[in-house]
Design a protein that fits this description.
The protein is α+β, with helices and mostly antiparallel strands and 414 residues long. The chain folds into 2 domains: 295 residues, Zn peptidases (Aminopeptidase, 3-Layer(aba) Sandwich), CATH 3.40.630; 111 residues, Alpha-Beta Plaits (2-Layer Sandwich), CATH 3.30.70. It has 10 helices and 17 strands. The strands form 4 sheets. It has a 7-stranded mixed sheet, with helices on one face. The protein has a 4-stranded antiparallel sheet with strand order 4-7-17-16. The protein has a 4-stranded antiparallel sheet with strand order 12-13-11-14, with helices on one face. A hairpin with a 7-residue loop joins strand 16 and strand 17. Helix 1 packs antiparallel against helix 3 and helix 3 packs across helix 10. It is globular and about 80 Å long.
């Protein structure tokens, strides 16, 4: 199946759409709206119907059913991807490079001598010999997460419009902002979207089908000290930075961290520090596949914060737990047909289904609990959130094939 997927992707990644966790606006950055408006125009030009962009930036569109069956007997299926890129690495001035017919070996990125995509560190490369590999130039991320998904959905809709002989029910498309900062579905109107089930295109290697995610919270500890002139601070100053450092030093060593866990293991991860002598706030990601595991880790963090304060007379701490998302498996398991169709589409496209837990979350995590069961499909994304991010053109084209297959199979099941 030849589509416009790669051409679209190479264009979309040049849009800087980095989101901003510190922003209180929605979307968190205006620059996301530039690509969202562009996608709205492209959807209209393709010929999709009910193309809209609401006040929050959500772009949605409808591909009407072309089946000879009663469309009411076919579930309306949605396909969702997010446009924003991670705040952890610059997405400005992305220069995509296509490494044609990759034949193995390390890949040197041209704009930074230290940016080397090493086979030893990226074993997925071994499965992509013969593929066109797409990278950035070494100083920015690529943006495959999730512009690969955006390009795949757009290309699949174009393909279905060009091939009316492929029967399908009503299909919905949604492009969202702010997924990377955990607010991708904050204002999403599930009822207005009108799909019964949906799939996000926001995964890794070919064949991946993900129906369980971390459950996620953020633990926020704000340590209060007392600041005064350091030359006259004896017996008076209480340094909140040192109290926070004591708290961080008390975190478990060699376990319960991102760098020491995998599979179904959860973690706690201090990731931002807003520091001053008077007041220092530490934000800690808390992850587990079970809510009970979250609560256990949060109780540990609370205890460690109190212990740190006890060692610094005059200090105090306020803590807060902010819910991010929950494990979508709780919802997806109630609708096995969603996964059955996806598995069949993946197998018919010539791939082996790979069911793995997501050590993170997707828009589908929250959408599932909002009444729209939404597992995640592979999109060909690798080494995300880094300047070594890469994508396989073959895997991206296979994702397009799977989207088309899912649309066809839901119609066939009616």
């Amino acid at each position: 199946m030849t589509t416009t997927c790669i051409e679209r992707f190479l264009r979309y990644v040049t849009f800087d759409t980095q989101s901003d966790e510190a922003s209180t606006a929605y979307p968190s950055t205006e620059k996301q709206l530039v690509l969202l408006r562009h996608l709205k125009d492209e959807l209209s030009a393709l010929g999709l119907e009910a193309v809209t962009m609401d006040s929050y930036g959500y772009v949605t569109a409808t591909l009407p059913a072309n089946t000879t069956k009663d469309p009411a007997t076919i579930p309306v299926i949605g396909f969702v991807a997010h446009v924003d890129t991670s705040p952890e690495m610059s997405g400005a001035g992305v220069k995509p490079i296509v490494h044609r017919d990759y034949q193995g070996g390390d890949i040197q990125l041209p704009d930074d001598p230290s940016a080397i995509l090493k086979v030893a560190e990226h074993p997925d490369l071994a499965a992509c010999v013969g593929h066109d590999i797409i990278t950035a130039s070494g100083t920015t991320l690529l943006g495959a997460d999730d512009k690969a998904g955006v390009a795949e959905i757009m290309a699949a809709m174009e393909y279905l419009l060009a091939h009316p002989e492929i029967p399908h029910g009503t299909l919905k498309v949604a492009f969202t902002p702010d997924e990377e900062v955990g607010r991708g579905t904050q204002h999403f109107d599930v009822e207005a979207f009108g799909a019964r089930y949906a799939y996000t295109l926001d995964g890794g290697p070919a064949g991946e089908l993900e129906s369980e995610t971390f459950a996620a919270d953020t633990f926020v500890a704000t340590f209060q000290g007392f600041n005064t002139h350091p030359g006259y601070a004896k017996g008076k100053m209480v340094n909140a930075i040192k109290v926070a450092a004591d708290f961080i030093a008390r975190l478990p060593q060699g376990k319960l961290s991102p760098e020491t866990t995998d599979g179904y293991e959860g973690y706690v991860h201090p990731y931002t520090l807003d520091a001053s002598v008077e007041k220092t706030t530490v934000r800690v990601l808390v992850r587990d596949f079970q809510v009970a595991g979250l609560e256990e880790k949060e109780a540990l963090l609370e205890r460690l914060a109190r212990e740190a304060v006890a060692e610094h007379p005059g200090a105090s701490v306020e803590t807060q737990v902010q819910e991010s998302y929950r494990n979508m498996k709780e919802v997806i398991d109630q609708h096995p047909e969603i996964l059955d169709v996806a598995r069949q589409a993946i197998e018919e496209a010539g791939m082996t289904v790979r069911s793995v837990p997501i050590r993170g979350g997707t828009d589908g995590s929250k959408l599932s609990f909002m009444g729209l069961p939404t597992p995640n499909l592979f999109a060909g994304e690798h080494a995300i959130h880094s300047r070594l991010e890469w994508a396989s053109a073959w895997e991206m084209e296979k994702a397009v094939e799977v989207i088309v297959g899912i649309a066809r199979l839901w119609e066939a099941r009616a």
